[in-house]
Structure formats: C-alpha cells, structure tokens
Write a structure and sequence with these properties.
Blueprint lengths: L3 E6 L10 H9 L2 E4 L5 H4 L6 E4 L2 E2 L2 E2 L3 H13 L3 E6 L9 H11 L3 E4 L4 H8 L13 E5 L3 H8 L8 E5 L5 H10 L7 E6 L7 E6 H4 L10 E5 L6 H11 L10
Parallel strand pairs: 1-6, 1-7, 2-3, 2-6, 8-9
Antiparallel strand pairs: 4-5, 9-12, 10-11, 10-12
Helix pairs in contact: 3-4, 6-7
C-alpha cells in the first residue's frame, strides 16, 4: 500500500488564514508531523490524526531532517495520509524542498499546499505594506539566523533601495543593524520587530536601525524584522485596521 503526503503551509498561525485545501487535508489526515510554531488550535483541525512533533527552534531539534524524511516515507508506504504541517509556506525557509526531494527519491506520491508566508502576513497584519508606491518597489526576504546566511545578500543590496524582511533574525538583530549601517544604510532607517503575527498577544516594536539592537521585550512569541521606509506607514494603516475589525486592537500595540 502507498499513501500520500501533503506538505502543507499553515500560514502565520490563525486558523482562519489557512487555505481551503490545507483544511481539507488536515481533516482527512491519518498522521500530522508538525513544526514547533504550529499552534494547538490548528492541530485540532485534524481530529482523526496521530500527531508527531518534529519541531526545531533555536538549535533545539526534536529530530533531525533525515529522521523527518524517514517518518514521511515510512508512513506513506504504510498507506497513511500524511500532513507535514509547517508554519508559513513550505518552500520559504522551511526545508520543504528537501522533503519533496526525499519523497521523490523514495517514489512516494505527494503534493505541496502553499501557505501564507509570515514574510508577507506579519508585515500586513502590522499595517506595513512591503511595497508602496513612492517608498519601495521591491522587497527581499532573508534568513537572519547566521551572518553566513544574510551577509552575502545584504552586501548586494543598495542601501535603502527596498524593504528588507528578515526571518529568524530577532536574536541577531543588533548584528544585522550594524552590518546594514556599515554598508551605508542610514541609521534613522525605520525598522520594526513584529512578534506573534496573527496570534493572541501579538505586538509590534517600531524604531530605527540605530535602536534596533537595543530593543527590549520579554516574549516567547516568534518575531520577524522589517526594515525600510514602508515601516512609517504602520501607525496609520494599523489604526485603520483597528477601527474596521472588532477585537483587532488587542493584536497591535507598541
């Protein structure tokens, strides 16, 4: 018997932001392998499924990537419907490509179910458009977990020429800010840290590159960095969202 694997993007966390296909796959799943940032309310949408946590956070891995590949292949070959549930989009800094290649090599049938990446969803929910006429006509998304990942990309971007979105960069925010300033970005370039986008208790810190490394907060919520002139729009767009959406005010504060 051969089952089927769905590499599913969970979006930024709010179940209402799932795609319809993602919801159907969760409802039909026999097994869900979920990442660290997937919330319990999303897992509740898979009532028939056995759950297996395969999360990785800040170097704390419950299982290595090869082990995840083996679990996916083994379950599919037992005839199970498997959902590999990832935060955001499976192919945006989520190793979804590696898992797809492993399934291809094993001859396992699979699909990719795209999700809303936090690189887009978090700024939008915080009132920050990543592109805006007159301010930014492009944006770049980089991983901020290590200098070897972000430095070559940042070095190739003209200072202030686009919006920079950094995933996994809260811990290294000071080094990233210093690197950008050293490359000619103005110290007063607006910057934001968005914590827990779409989750209860989410909040946004607003400042600039000069103060980004000194930003102080206490939270376990995941965060992303947004750097560029578009950050200035946050206060206006956020206030309009608050007035239009009941209950949204609790989600946005400095």
């Amino acid at each position: 018997m051969t089952g089927f694997v769905s590499l599913v993007g969970a979006g930024p966390g709010d179940p209402e932001l799932l795609t319809l296909r993602a919801l159907r796959r969760l409802r039909d799943a026999d097994l869900v392998l979920n990442d660290a940032l997937v919330q319990e309310d999303l897992l509740q949408l898979a009532p028939k499924a056995q759950r297996f946590y395969v999360g990785k956070r800040a170097g704390r891995h419950s299982i290595d990537q090869e082990g995840i590949h083996r679990l996916l292949v083994r379950a599919a070959k037992r005839g199970q419907k498997v959902v590999r549930l990832k935060c955001g989009d499976p192919f945006v800094l989520g190793r979804g490509g590696e898992e797809a290649l492993a399934l291809e090599a094993a001859g396992v049938a699979y699909e990719v179910v795209p999700g809303i990446s936090s690189a887009l969803a978090a700024p939008a929910l915080a009132g920050i458009p990543v592109t805006h006429r007159g301010l930014a006509s492009a944006f770049a998304v980089v991983s901020g977990h290590a200098e070897s990942s972000y430095a070559p990309i940042l070095d190739g971007i003209a200072p202030g020429s686009l919006t920079l979105v950094v995933l996994m960069g809260v811990r290294t925010r000071g080094a990233i800010a210093a690197h950008l300033i050293g490359r000619g970005w103005a110290a007063h370039t607006p910057a934001a840290i968005i914590h827990g986008a779409s989750h209860p208790g989410s909040f946004t810190w607003i400042g600039d590159l000069a103060t980004l490394g000194e930003a102080s907060f206490e939270t376990d919520l995941p965060g992303i960095l947004v750097i560029g002139e578009v950050v200035k729009l946050s206060s206006q767009i956020r206030s309009e969202q608050q007035s239009a959406a009941p209950g949204a005010a609790e989600r946005f504060f400095l």
